[in-house]
Specification:
The complex is a heterodimer of chains A (111) and B (115). Chain A is 0% helix and 58% strand. Chain A is mainly beta and 111 residues long. Chain A is globular and about 40 Å long. With 115 residues, chain B is mainly beta. Classes of the chains: A mainly beta (111), B mainly beta (115).
Chain lengths: 111, 115
């Protein structure tokens, strides 16, 4: 079953613009992670945010978490063509590191 | 540090045949996962191991899928007999299981086509 649902399903922007994607989930979480997947490859971890955190930064990435709305957002600033990929959120609801992935956002950055 | 190794990368079989996928996690990682990713969808958790014990296999179709983790290291996922809807990429991931971490490291995946 899918716990998270990303929005939008697909996003196309110009290089240099910011990209924002959202993840909504159904049940309370211990932490939430964001992953990137290039076409035909495995997933790569981007950032983890815990339930008691509201915002985290890593390079050009900014993640927010609103537990009252059961949602998270991933902002990629100054996007590059190399950021073209699918982005997934994953949630741990049980505290046993059982990670359930969302449906993903396909990002295309045009040069 | 070597990453998560999976084999084979690609496999094509006829329906009702059997197939096995192998995964070697990052050394020292206690937690191992198998995910199924159908084209255009997010990864779906099939089974989670902690060392050589099963933590969760609630989404594993046990009538045809089986998985084991030998001595808490390598793991094998088997499908017998395969159905057309099993066509997907099978992703193996591992994690240290440390409460201060949580990051999953993924292999490149094994792409299965069932004809």
């Amino acid at each position: 079953s899918q716990q998270g649902e990303e929005d939008p399903q697909a996003l196309s922007i110009q290089e240099g613009e910011n990209a924002t994607m959202n993840c909504s989930y159904k049940t309370s979480i211990n932490n939430l992670q964001w992953y990137r997947q290039n076409s035909g490859r495995g997933l790569v971890h981007l950032i983890l945010i815990r339930s008691n955190e509201r915002e985290k930064h890593s390079g050009r990435l900014r993640v927010t978490l609103d537990t009252s709305k059961k949602s998270s957002s991933l902002l990629i600033t100054a996007s590059r063509a190399a950021d073209t990929a699918s982005y997934f959120c994953a949630t741990d609801t049980s505290g046993t590191y059982k990670y359930i992935f969302g449906t993903g956002t396909r990002l295309k950055v045009l040069a | 540090e070597a990453g998560v190794a999976q084999s084979p990368r690609y496999k094509i079989i006829e329906k009702r045949q059997s197939v096995a996928f192998w995964c070697n996690p990052i050394s020292g990682h206690a937690t191992l996962y198998w995910y199924q990713q159908i084209l255009g969808q997010g990864p779906k958790l099939l089974i989670q191991f902690q060392n050589n014990g099963v933590v969760d296999d609630s989404q594993l179709p046990k009538d045809r899928f089986s998985a084991e983790r030998l001595k808490g290291v390598d793991s094998t996922l088997k499908i017998q007999p395969a159905k057309l809807e099993d066509s997907a990429v099978y992703l193996c991931a591992s994690s240290s299981g440390d409460s201060s971490a949580g990051e999953l490291f993924f292999g490149e995946g094994s792409r299965l086509t069932v004809l």
